[in-house]
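Field reference: sequence -> structure
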Amino acid sequence: MSAPPDRSADTAARPPSGRPFRVQWEDTIAVLCMAGLVLLTLANVVVRYLTDETLAPTEEVSIALMVIMTLAGACGAATRDRHVRIEFFYETGSAWRRRRLGLLSAAATCGFFILLGLLSMRVVWDEFHFAETTMALGVPRWWYTVWVPVLCFALAVRAAQVFARVRRGQMLPGEPAAPEATPDDGAPR
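Structure field:
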């Protein structure tokens, strides 16, 4: 008689439904931004090592990529309901309490990112209207900041989707992944 295989590592990255996650567009954006950051940093190190000069203008591109990567990662976390939260309140409460806290959390996240998106739109408009340019490369500054409201609104949509799933009872915040069924190996129990 053999012990059942350890599936803790397999189910840790699965949603409560037990199915594996699909790669979302947010994940792709975050990975591309991370790859861009790695390439920029590597190029900067190589150029600095070989020439004693630096690629200082790449700093503004790196900052823009980090902001985009952060918001894209937050969208992915919202999609999976994996945002940072105080697990003590989720784990020690009843299902009713977890549901209510999940609804409150999703609604607050949605509201916050709608507000942040609106304020970011104002910043982008001002940068566009006054034709602000970046100091290092001299390109329009709104090229970098236009992505902030877009991703804020996408994050608000993802939080609203979580709110709808919790409200319909399709997910319960803080609930561990459902264990997978193991095939019967024919061994007597």
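Note: Residues 4-13, 176-187 have pLDDT under 50 and may be disordered.
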